[in-house]
Specification:
The protein is mostly helical and 305 residues long. It has one domain. It has helices at 2-14, 40-54, 59-76, 82-88, 96-106, 138-144, 148-160, 173-177, 192-219, 230-251, 254-257, 264-270, and strands spanning 128-129, 134-135. The protein has a two-stranded antiparallel sheet. Strand 1 (128-129) and strand 2 (134-135) form a beta hairpin. Helix 7 (148-160) crosses helix 10 (230-251), helix 9 (192-219) packs across helix 10 and helix 9 (192-219) crosses helix 12. It is globular. This is Reverse transcriptase zinc-binding domain-containing protein.
Length: 305
């Protein structure tokens, strides 16, 4: 015991003396943030940043980030950074429920495929697509499945955009998850309206496929007789597009949204050449209700309102 005490005193004696801070310097030498001057927003941002740096990256998230980078680089010619991918999920061009779908997709947070693999029967059966007899993942659901929704929705999207783009781009799950970053042009220069409408059509179409798939597998329990027909899928797709057109019209209201209102010229450029305008409607159709894409004019179902 005496030996331990002697060693401790020796170490203490050799330690560097503590730096003295005079009273006139102390207010400027305090480590950390001053509580009297910090705001709740700043404190919350700092806490989230600290937690984010301490949280290790998820393996599946890294894989999906690589897919997004490859898809965006294929379309734009330049790969985005990881920070740009996460910031793009806050884009106002994409509806909030679609942004949530994309965020969960990047994190592989959807309960599909391997999520059910280790579960007992009958839950393990949900891992397999009954139509294709293969393990489900987001790539399979959105593009590879032989179901009506996966086949017809993308045909509707490409036909809808035929008047605005020379060629429908090759898509995969990375293109959907990175949809808010995709850029499009017909003449070599980026066109803001074309880019915006393509982002909307691609992400909304993918989200519609996801919703129809969930209804087919969960609500109707893979009942073939309850599967949606081509006509129903077509009507729901046009109803979804018409809903986005109406949403854009409402967001241009400067009296209600003030500085956050959408630019009318941007909305007009977004849907240019894609709407059926009656003869008595002027070129600026934003203040004229009843402007529709052309089909699916009936009232949409509850989830698409």
């Amino acid at each position: 015991m005496e030996e331990t005490t002697r060693k401790a005193r020796a170490v203490t004696g050799n330690a560097r003396p503590r730096r003295r801070v005079t009273p006139d310097v102390e207010p400027f030498d305090t480590p950390g943030a001053s509580l009297c001057g910090i705001t709740q927003k700043t404190a919350h941002t700092i806490i989230r940043h600290i937690k984010a740096t301490e949280t290790p990256a998820r393996r599946r998230t890294k894989q999906n980030i690589r897919r997004v980078k490859a898809a965006v680089e294929r379309q734009n010619g330049e790969a985005p950074t990881e920070d740009e991918i996460w910031r793009a999920l806050k884009s106002r061009d994409i509806a909030r429920n679609v942004r949530n779908f994309l965020w969960k997709g990047i994190h592989s947070g959807h309960k599909i495929g391997n999520y059910f693999t280790g579960m007992p029967a009958p839950w393990c059966e949900y891992a397999i697509c009954p139509m294709c007899n293969t393990t489900e993942d987001l790539q399979h659901i959105l593009f590879d499945c032989t179901s009506n929704e996966a086949t017809n929705v993308w045909n509707l999207a490409s036909d809808f955009m035929a008047n605005r783009t020379d060629q429908w781009p090759p898509l995969d799950v990375g293109s959907v998850l990175g949809g808010p970053l995709l850029q499009f042009s017909n003449d070599g220069g980026q066109q803001r309206g074309l880019t915006r409408v393509m982002r909307i059509v691609i992400t909304e179409s993918a989200f519609l496929i996801w919703k129809i798939r969930c209804e087919r597998r969960i609500e109707h329990e893979d009942d073939a007789d309850a599967a949606p027909s081509v006509e129903e899928i077509t009507g729901r797709w046009y109803a979804m597009i018409n809903s986005r057109v109406a949403h854009d019209r409402h967001l241009t209201n400067k009296r209600r949204y003030r500085r956050k209102a959408l630019d009318e010229n941007l909305v007009l450029d977004t849907w240019d050449g894609l709407l059926e305008l009656p003869e008595n409607v002027p070129a600026n159709w934003i203040r004229h209700p009843g402007v529709l894409v052309g089909r699916g004019t009936t009232r949409p179902r509850g989830r698409e309102r």
